[in-house]
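How it folds:
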Amino acid sequence: MGLGLRFNIVFLSCYIVGLGLSLWPFYQLSRREAIEELQAQIDVLRAEALAVRKYTTDEIRPLLDDQSAIQFLPQTVPSFSAHTVFRNFRKYYPQYSYKEAALNPTNPAHRANDWERELIEKLTANHDLDKDITIRTTDEGQQYTVTYPMVIKDASCLTCHSTADNAPPSMVSLYGPKNGFGWKLNETLIAQIISIPMSAAETKVWRNLMLFIGISSAIFLVLLVLLNILLNRYVISPVNRMAKIAEAYSMGDASSPEFQYPGSDEVASLSRSFNRMRRSLDYAMKELEK
């Protein structure tokens, strides 16, 4: 096995070990950045939902209060507006989901299912928790889900949710007297649940990982070629020339010229030592011939 081949094997082994040690941290870093991007998207979606809710409360409800006394209009309810806007949004991004899940909602469509109920109970048990982040496995793949508690802090909300007798008759007539009552201030009965598929993030992570491997491999190949050129020029080629001269001299051919290698490195020092040894042998042979 030649010196060049040994060098390439060692260099390749070092690259493989270095690449293997760096892949896991790079994957974790890329995944964290991808999840931060998902969280940023969810923050934007939540801000839009809160903006729609505020617009409904400040602008729509005052305009329709008089009509609501005759006929209950769901358009005056902030959660109805938020769900309606997001339902239209899903026509463009069907993989995103938004729900204001409630333990005891007026509209049965907003009732929390089993896993949503667990999230609400978790937020209720820990009032210091401002959000809960979960990666759920669904039939459509993994979902990055963030749940925000919605605490009842506005006493005006209890007008429609304290008892059926205090609620607008038109609302009771539409939804019945059994749902959405018994709410109390400072209770976490509702949670905003926003989900985004993890597929886009995972795709980006693996794309970055493949890009990292590709770039590092290209750099390795360029360095390998460059180092082989330097190794061949400054080490292998001079050593091979000295080896050929030594072989010829050992076969009795003393006509080969001395090998001169300029410089002060190890190969130059070896060439000077080689030439001194040759001259010493020449002198010794001449002395024997006398």
Summary: The first strand starts at residue 97 and ends at 102. The CA atoms of residues 115 and 179 lie 20 Å apart. The beta strands are 97-102, 132-138, 141-151, 188-197.
